[in-house]
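User: Can you help me understand a structure? I only have the sequence.
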Amino acid sequence: MDTPVLWQFTFSHFNEKARWALDYKRIAHVRRSLLPGPHLPKVMAMTGQTSVPVLIMNRETILDSTRIIGRLEHTNPAPALYPADPEQRGRALDLEEFFDEQLGPYDRQWFFDLTLDHPDYLVSGFCCEASEKERSEYRAGFPALAQLFRQRLRINPSEVEVARKMTMAALDRIESELQPSGYLVGNQFSVADLTAAALLAPLADPPEFPYRISVPAPKGVIEVRESIAARPAIRYVREMYRRHRGRSAEVRE
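Assistant: Let's start by predicting it. Here is the structure, written out as tokens:
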């Protein structure tokens, strides 16, 4: 059986969601890191679409972090991310969908608004595993890529304000859903917790996030992180990382 291959961006919260699931289930896998923008021809040729993560496993090509987790639950059910109880499982999947749709796109949009004028910071995040030549070329071409990102992510003042409000509403939702156990569903870690924590990683900045940026964060990012650091939802995210992020299951080719 071939080793699963995860095509990913290093600094991406939806990619972190899939990566965390592989690590949590201790599934040995190869990671192939792409650079946003230049990734398009490769991923289009492989999938007919433009987004990552993409998991190649058992000769099957699986797109999208939610589908990847669903497939992993089928092939590697332990440790489980879907609760065994049907009612709790339904609630966990509903929360996963909520965070996928009502948080992930919006905190990404807000975060890029805070960082696109700071190319050294983003290049450091995207190029964690790139060669010096690749890093240099990517930095040189970043101004043009930044314009592409602004268009694709609809980064303008009115849309970014909506994104900020949606992100804050998602924090409210987490705080309203938290159980006495410290988890969102029942008494154990589930796909709901993994999704909420992974998608908030850029704002919560947990030390266990596997790819660290060597350049100091821009002032705007620091101010936002400081403004929400005391919120129970952010403390929860950091606690989920502390308890459950664990070590990498990546293997080298």
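Now, to help you interpret it: The CA atoms of residues 150 and 156 lie 8 Å apart. The chain has two domains: 5-75, 86-244. Let me know which part you'd like to focus on.
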